[in-house]
Amino acid sequence: MADILLLEPGYANKYPPIGLMKISYFHKYIHHDYVRFAKGKLPDAYKDKKWDRVYVTTLFTFEWKRTKQAIEYALTVAKDPTQVYTGGILATLMPDLIAKHFPTVKNNTGLLNRKGTLGLEHEECIDTMTLDYGILDDIADQYVYPAHDAYFTYMTRGCGMKCQFCAVQTLEPEYIPFISITESIRRVDEQFGPKKDLLLMDNNVLRSPHFDDIVDEIKALGFQKGATYINPKTGKSVQRFVDFNQGLDAFLLTPHKAERLGELAIRPARIAFDHIEDAEAYKRAITLCARSGITHMSNYLLYNGEDFTGKGHSYHADTPEDLYERMKISMDLCEDLNNELDHKVAIFSFPMRYIPLSDLKRGYVGAKWNHKYLRALQRMLIPTQGKGVSSRSFFEADFGTSKEEFVMYLAMPEEHLGWRGHFARRKNETDEEMEARRVVWLENQEILAEWKRRFQALGDTKDEFISYIGDNNYSVERFMKIKNLEHKKLFIHYFTIPTLLKALSMDNAEEKEIIIDYITKDFPLVYKRMVRYVADGRLPHSMLEGAFTTFKADFAKSVLEVIDYEAEEEPFVINNLLKAQKRVGREYFQFDLIRTYYLFKNTGVLRKCDKIEAVEAIKKLDESKTRSVLASRFKAFRAKLIKQATNDALGAQYVAAQIDQRLNNFCKQISLFEVVE
Hints:
The protein is an alpha/beta fold. The chain is about 45% helix and about 10% strand. It contains 29 helices and 15 strands. The strands form five sheets. The chain has a five-stranded parallel sheet with strand order 2-1-3-4-5, sandwiched between helices. A three-stranded parallel sheet has the order 6-7-10, with no helix packed on it. Helix 9 links the parallel strand 11 and strand 12. The chain is elongated and about 95 Å long. About 30% of the residues are buried.
């Protein structure tokens, strides 16, 4: 009996590691070993345990960082470094990478579909083993797969289309047209209990000449149209679903096959729409499915691609306009079908970013895309929450009403993207909260309108401007490289407030003047936003030096105009203003007086009229008036502090004297004695 550790790297993924579940079944139920599953690494309770064998599964190549960490960890907990095994997608596609970094690790490429692939006694074909669902309990308090209550299996293997960009031809080079799953599901039911759904991982099930047999077996297993399932935890009847998760080939879908799919509890029917050139085939396939009674369909929309060949066709590198058009085709098709049919259908679009098989990160940029567009699209997809784009109203609000508007959104500053949309009241929101939010929303709309106006005015120079923002570099240095004045003004919208403050510290007076003119004359709302950000934030004081040098006392006035004088504590920015003016060597106001104002206010010695007078004086940088108001309440302040501190205690006279001395010293430091007897 051996100790076996199964390890999945700590990335987020939708489906459990099927390969490890099969390996677990062999070790646990045939070899009778002790098996433990972990994601990332084991809990601390196992920190001192060493393992006879460690299996590490791998997923996509761009998860190399986490995969590498998992293998490194495996080597620290294995008794023998030669007893660490890797397999899966990355291990198959990039075996040299594994060998280079981990020469002692045994790497398995392809499927475990041959006898003795793991070199174990009594080892038959691991690939045909029952899945051990029990290992999922090992990480139940750490990670729950979004899709977990399902039978995970294959009824065919391979694809055979040999598309240029696809890994299947390497992972599963041989096409197997039919694999019966009845026996494996029976074993799962006996050992782990029935599962709600059937998730088929086939890469090209429609190519099989045994497709009718596949459908018949699925129906016999209880996944016919309208099939239900009794939830063992709740006792309630719920619908069952079949999901050909890897998608259905639009070119291989015939009327007969669509009718057969319609006999199943399929939800959704996934049909790839990776290239605009496949539009007619896609529309035909969706229509066949809808007319066969399938109500939920989805499409994968590959974007960020290059020139491809596959399925007997040649495809050009996609553009952002192509992606928009593909999503719009689905919207239009959904409406047409709902007008035609006597039942409602829904079509969900899932844009998926193309990443080459050799990419170890996620940074690849296709020929017709740029970093800016890719990042903006990800931001636009956040509201979908992985559920896909389904409604026209959402589609047009998020992606635009035309290809041109979509590209404009992709070029929009990322923060601006979140400002689009209508204003609506939030649940449990008070009138005051709503009104405060409306003020900000209206300002955001004003900024959006300004950006749109300037972007739309670019005309023939649009591509040139896009070249400045395409790499998501919105630095002061990039600003200085731009020659076109209108481009410079538009580029300011891409500055964060810290970057804008940095720009005000630049030595180039001509370049700085462009920024000053824009934020104070052309579009002063930017200056207003900058001031508010400074007033509300906790920036390093050094970041304020450029603003002080540029706007001098007016900057201090602007900040003091918006701070909250009723707040319990003095704003952080007061100390920043004090330090910043010392750094620039100019004193515009003795900001310690503002601290004194808050101190007096919080002790309750300032009357309403005192507070009004003091705040007005502070906003005008009127030191004399500010001292006068505070000095007039000094005796009351001193008396209150002494009373609170002594409270008829022993030695009260001594305590009072000490407080009096310290208060006098304090007032002297802030020059309050200029008006205090």
